[in-house]
Amino acid sequence: MHIEGTILRGREFEPVEGRVVVEDGEIAAVESAAVEADAIVCPAFVNAHTHVGDSIAKEAGAGLSLTELVAPPDGLKHRLLREADRATLVRAMGRSLSYMEASGTGTCIDFREGGVDGVTAIQEALWGRDIDGVVLGRETVDAMEAGDGFGASGAKDAEFGAKRRATREAGKLFGIHAGEVDSADINPALDLDPDFLVHMVHAEELHLERVADSEVPVVVCPRSNLVTGVGQPPVEALCERTTVALGTDNVFLNSPSMFREMALTAKRYDLPAREVLRMATVHGAELAGLEAGVIEPGRPARLLVLDADTDNLCGIHDPVRAVVRRAGTADVARTVLPS
Fold first, then answer.
1. Which terminus of the chain has a smaller tally of CB atoms within 10 A, N or C?
2. Do residues 52 and 89 make contact, with C-beta atoms less than 8 angstroms apart?
3. Are residues 156 and 283 in the same domain?
4. Same domain flag for 185 and 325
């Protein structure tokens, strides 16, 4: 398979006119050549933090605080999840996963409520779709074992030491929310030696130093934090100290669009477009131990092809800025993933 256009090659997303040669689901070569295709080819996005189960309640809970919306065990989303039957839940998650496919996401890292049943429900919703899920179970060790790891709500919600040990012994991912409402749970979260943290809105200098020392990656979700009114993460300061990835968070708060997440991040923070695109691709892949997120030989062919001749993208001068700040779902020609 040959995919032609302006290729955003490597970690620096160097624009190269030419083609990506794909063999057996792997990038065999990136060739410079004069081509006729009017397309931008970049890595498929890695949405590094989702709660796809919330798809049953899009835009529910207007006016509620973050605690009222999502705090376990009786926040609005947890009540609605308990009340939903499995078929409704799987169908709703499937619709959101289809939307992510259509908007260029190749992988999502999902914190999946509902124990083992919750994990198997999203695995059912993912079946047969051109999007991969890294599914982190919640609540129980059994859920972790059924999925790809454990996604903890926050260090002040419960004691996660035993679950952290079990996850480490299983050789799986352990992620935890930290610093979303205030800073009180950041140090306890870091004490667990997690594989990554989510949010860090209220990170202070002490926490930033600990993050740098431990080299723990952080996933930020700026649109979610705006909606819930908890503040904004210090993204520039985090980027100076560690690997930072982007996630869209709860589906009932925001559409799971990485285009929208990138555009807000690029326009709100003093970051180069290339750094924002890394946050939406290779950084999320690396924190999950995936080989995705970069177009270079030997990598899996997980690619997003944008039509550069749409009314929105026609005439662009900087393809990286265009992907980050301007492009949207309507510009997606196709997503290519290994079969």
1. C
2. no
3. yes
4. no
Q: Which residues contact 253 (CB under 8 A, 6 or more apart)?
A: 54, 69, 223, 224, 227, 228
Do 97 and 231 lie in a common domain? yes
Q: What is the mean pLDDT of the chain?
A: 94
Per-residue pLDDT averaged across 274-302, rounded? Answer: 95
Domain check: are 228 and 313 in the same one?
no
Q: Which value, in Å, is the radius of gyration of the alpha carbons in the chain? A: 19
What tokens appear for 73 in the block? 């065990």
Give the model confidence (pLDDT) of 163-184 as tens digits: 999 999 999 999 999 999 999 9
Write down the pTM of the prediction: 0.95
CA nearest to 109, candidates 250, 241, 284 = 284
pLDDT tens, 116-165?
999 999 999 999 898 999 999 998 999 999 999 999 998 888 889 999 99
Contact criterion met (CB below 8 Å) for 249 and 223? yes
Residues 101 and 112 sit within 8 Å (Cβ to Cβ)? no
Domain housing 271: 45-287
Here the tokens at position 134 are: 């890294």
Asked if 303 and 225 sit in the same domain, the reply is no
Tokens 């590094």 belong to residue: 48
Both 23 and 50 in one domain: the answer is: no
Q: SS3 of 103, please?
A: coil
Which tokens belong to 264?
Answer: 């807000």
- For residue 164, count CB atoms less than 10 angstroms from its CB and return exposed for 0-12, middle for 13-18, buried for 19 or more: buried
Rounded CA-CA distance 93/304 in Å is 22
Residue 237 and residue 247 in one domain = yes
**Residue 67 pLDDT greater than 90, yes or no:** no
Tokens read off for 320: 């990286």
Q: Is the peptide bond before 15 cis (omega within 30 degrees of 0)?
A: no
Strand stretches in the chain, DSSP E: 2-9, 14-23, 26-32, 39-43, 45-51, 105-112, 132-137, 149-152, 173-178, 196-199, 218-220, 244-246, 249-250, 303-307, 332-336
